[in-house]
Amino acid sequence: MSVINIDDLEREAQVRANKMVWDFWAGGAVDLYTISDNKNAFLDYRIRPRYMRDVTSVSAAPHRLLLGTSYSIPCGLAPSSMHRLAHPDGELATARAAKSKNWPMAISSYSTFALEDAKAAGGENLIFLQLYVFKNRTTSQDLVHRAEVAGYKALLLTVDSPFIGLRYSDRRNSFQLPPGVEPGNFAGGRYAGPIDFAVEAKSTSRKSQVDTLSKEKEIKPNVVDSGLTWDDVKWLKSITKLEVWVKGVLTAEDAALAVDAGADGIWVSNHGGRQLDGCLPTLHALPEVVEAVKGRIPVHLDGGIRRGSDIFRAIALGADFVWIGRPVLWGLAYDGQKGVERAEEILEDEFKLTMALSGCVSVSDISKSYLTRRSTSLWSRL
Ligand SMILES: Cc1cc2nc3c(=O)[nH]c(=O)nc-3n(C[C@H](O)[C@H](O)[C@H](O)COP(=O)(O)O)c2cc1C
Question: How many domains does the chain have?
Answer without folding.
Answer: 1
